[in-house]
Amino acid sequence: MNKSPNPHRCLVETRKLCKTYPDGRVNALIDVNLCIRQGEFVAIMGPSGSGKTTLLNTLGALDNPTQGEVLFEGKPLGSWGSLDVFRSREIGFVFQAFFLLPTLSALENVQVPMFEGDLPVRKRVERARELLESVGMGHRLNALPPKLSVGERQRVAIARALANEPKLLLSDEPTGNLDSKNEAEVLDLFCDLHRTHGKTMIMITHSEEVARRAERIIRMRDGQIVADDPVVKTSRAG
Ligand code: ADP
Ligand code: MG
């Protein structure tokens, strides 16, 4: 690969990424080469078991590749001192199942990723409040997750993912548990994050319609990328 400065530098990049789980029965990823540029909004699609989650988790250092490497801003993840620090500073995760702490309020849940940082308490609370306001949850700051609708829970989870101003937002079927109205609202939120804040986002989805809100669709099958195409926008702007 050419090492000269590249105007379209990758924010995150994989080189010959392979993953075999310890039981060794399947190759979850086979020689995956990928470059996601700063500011891109990418959807990942593919049948169940095709390696989507494994790829996302490897990009976000939640899982290690068996071979190959992930580079973030051109730097191999292996050269970050601590992957925990890397993850909490640079990556925001949104999952289908939200994973909010049920006994903490919305306002407290959003502060959890900030506990490791050096913000004073008052600033931390203020930031959590602003984030919740920005996702339309300013009126439910003190609610516990079990008292929130699933759509509201996902909004809180998105606010939490943004807590440390990550450069990359990774989401694994973020609308998988939502009805169509909430799905549309959460998608609007993602599109706004991308459009207004230029956030780089990678989102796994089963829905062709959801994927078309992104700018680029990567399709996987049996651990490999089998298609990688820009989304051609027709009527409504995404
Ligand atoms: P997808 O998200 O596309 O459904 P996954 O990345 O979850 O796919 O899985 C890819 C392949 O790896 C599948 O064959 C799956 O069974 C296997 N796999 C995923 N997680 C594990 C695990 N923890 N241990 C063993 N095999 C796994
Ligand atoms: Mg999956």
The residue fraction in helices comes out at 25-40%
> Averaged pLDDT, please?
93
Distance between the termini: 33 Å
* CA-based gyration radius: 18 Å
Helix/strand class: alpha/beta
Low-confidence stretches: 1-7
Shape: globular
| Ions, cofactors and other bound molecules | adenosine-5'-diphosphate, magnesium ion
- What is the number of helices? 7
Percentage beta strand: 25-35%
Largest sheet, spatial ordering of strands: 6-7-8-3-9-10
Instruction: Note the main sheet.
Output: 6 strands, mixed
What letter string, H or E per element, gives the SSE order? EEEHEEHEHHHEHEHEE
- Tally of DSSP β-strands: 10
Question: What would you say about this model in short?
Answer:
Helices cover 29% and strands 26% of the residues. The protein is of the alpha/beta class and 238 residues long. A six-stranded mixed beta sheet has the order 6-7-8-3-9-10. Strands 2-1-4-5 form a four-stranded antiparallel beta sheet, covered by helices on one side.
Notes on the structure:
With 238 residues, the protein is an alpha/beta fold. The chain is built from seven helices and ten strands. It has helices spanning 52-59, 83-90, 106-111, 121-134, 150-161, 180-197, 208-211, and strands at residues 10-20, 27-37, 41-45, 67-72, 75-76, 91-95, 168-172, 200-204, 216-221, 224-230. The chain has a six-stranded mixed β-sheet with strand order 6-7-8-3-9-10. Strands 2-1-4-5 form a four-stranded antiparallel β-sheet, covered by helices on one side. Helix 6 (180-197) links the parallel strand 7 (168-172) and strand 8 (200-204). The model is unreliable at 1-7 (pLDDT under 50). Bound molecules: adenosine-5'-diphosphate and magnesium ion. Magnesium ion (MG) is lined by residues 52-53.
